[in-house]
Amino acid sequence: MNRFWKSGxxxxxxxxxxxxLSLIMxxxxxxxxxxxxxxxxxxxxxxxxxxxxxxxxxxxxxxREKIPQPGAAPGTPDRYRIKLKVGNxxxxxxxxxxxxxxxxxxxxxxxxxxxxxxxxxxxxxxTIKEVRNGGQTVAQGPEAGWAGVRALLPExxxxxxxxxxxxxxxxxxxxxxxxxVQLRLxxxxxxxxxxxxxxxxxxxxxAQSQEKHKVHEAELAQLRQRQTAxxxxxxxxxxxxxxxxxxxxxxxxxxxxxTVTKTGFYFSKVWExxxxxxxxxxxxxxxxxxxxxxxxxxxxxSLVVTPLGVIAAFxxxxxxxxxxxxxxxxxxxxxxxxxxxxxxxxFGVGFFIYFMGGSIDxxxxxxxxxxxxxxxxxxxxxxxxxxxxxxxxxIVATEEGLAAxxxxxxxxxxxxxATKFETTWRVVLPAVMPSILTGLIxxxxxxxxxxxxxxxxxVVKLAPSLPLDGLFPFLHLERKFMHLGFHIYDVGFQSPxxxxxxxxxxxxxxxxxxxxxxxxxxAIVIRNRLRKKFAGxxx
Amino acid sequence: MSLLNLPLTxxxxxxxxxxxxxxxxxxxxxLTIVDPMIQVKDVNxxxxxxxxxxxxxxxxxxxxxxxFIGPSGCGKTTLLRCFNRLNDLIDxxxxxxxxxxxxxxxxxxxxxxxxxxxxVGMVFQKSNPFxxxxxxxxxxxxxxxxxxxxxxxxxxxxxxxxxxLWEEVKDRLHESGLGISGGQQQRLCIARALAVEPxxxxxxxxxxxxxxxxxxxxxxxxxxxxxxxxxxxVTHNMQQAARVSDFTGFFLLGEMVEFDETTRIFTNPGDxxxxxxxxxxxx
Lengths: 539, 283
Fold this sequence. Notes:
A: alpha+beta; MetI-like fold; flat
């Protein structure tokens, strides 16, 4: 036994076991997220349940659970109940219904059942009864109706898209332009200029822009008038709903679809998820603005944190005289990495938003006041706060890289007549680059996953526009933005319809993992390329 | 800021031993080097409170190889690093006395140290190529002095040929300088030093980490280089000193015990301690 201990085998088992345990936990986490997130877009069958009392329910099977029977005699058969997603929120008031399996008289999978994803009110389940266009019935019955909808839908969707485009781009642009002109007028007014050629020119511009606005409004009204096609849906429980085709995002008959069609459908849903705007208070549609906001924030943060951290590390390691003071600074920097992130958020609010943002507003945007421009949360302040949060990581990684570069490498450069700066710039900096990237990878991973400080420095549930768009000056650093991490919190716990949104939580979490992975992989690829360039040296 | 003005010819060595004077001590054997490349006068060096060099006086002739030998910690590397002022990098070093290279006093605070180091190249004990390609390693110095593309290729080729490395690496100039063997790396460092066309080449135990074959190659190289450069080489290996150098200085405990032509040091040392060291009685 003694020899067994001395052999060192138990220690190998212990270390191996610790590693295995960590791996299992990570794999379990990924599995849970994958299992819950990936199935969300798969079109499941629509069930028609006829209960013993004659009630008919139509919906997707969402869950099945055992009914607890306290005090039941042993041997009593288990009873189950199922959770059906019946949708039709506007008709029934709730999205889900619980049904005891005992009460079900008949289960069917009707092929003519349709599922309609609407722009408002969530899913609609039912069968097509009639298709109308301009007040006239075009088709009747499920089969003819399906064909009718398929024929009319592309045009309706095109018209709808056109409406949205005009609303968002044209009218949005008009409003933006008008606002800018008005602000400039107000700016002139603040400087005491109420008349003159400049003011007249601006007023002419304003009038032109208002004229354009009227034209666009008229276009919009005309478009709306052309959207006359509707579909009449018979829902379970003898209810009917007439739905304008423009309200339809997607209509399909899951029970009539084969595996191949379903797969294609699945990927089109995934694409919608990553490329579209959210609908229905974030519980439906896509998360593109959140992906965009997350990536953009991480990029801005990286642009700030890398130079800052690297320069600080260079000073600490290359220039500062090593002594108790520098050691104290180093300890302080390391400890900074352990400060709770919300503390940084509070600092961000106090310093960046109120002090810096407030000062910027007073200096550069007095015409907008009291409405803040930079004096409120925005992507710039959130990025700066996160840069502050992650700067210790970059400093520590860079410093370690600098310490690993042998002194004789620096001496070789100096002995060739290079100055200290030339040595630092041409030898030390390239050699420490992989370490800098390691620091950046860690910083990005931390920043992309951080939520708490963002909630108070600029993240919102729904941002009306992206921080980068086609309107001058294109990059709007003062704008609020959406973030995947906050999106998870919002959808999962702040949503009016938590049950319906739950799968979305996992899908968004999966996406966040993927975004972090992708950002890291990019940096890792760059780092490996640098390392390969200097093969044979270990950093 | 003053530039160096160095003599381009080799030094002349004259030995004066007036027969009418009795040889009281070995040091009275006077070795006069006319027009020396490096002149060291009364140099004392302290690291903080610890003195590392005591009153060193030495004339190093131009276009010859001079070896410094002595046991570890005797100050030979310290003295070598005085010649390109690399000791400036260490805190708490105080140097008194005078070191002249050519006609330039190098302890002059107004001296442009970069210019000095350009003229006085150095090869280190452990090969230390930059983590860059072979080409970039050699081109590093010239680039610092603002030399660009077309002339650079020529300099790189010439320097690598000068370091007897060209044939071995000409097909992989753009691979990492750290991917070649230890001996090749050391020759790469020599090529890198040659690329800035120095007049003096300091070598700090350049073969101590190399195998005998690589050592042989570098020694051969020193033989060819000393026709064009003034070489000062620090070595632990007495055979090496005997093989490559024309002059040898023996150091012990921070003092320069004896400096003379290599053949004389090894066949007829003037000091008892030198004799003990080279015959292996201590050290």
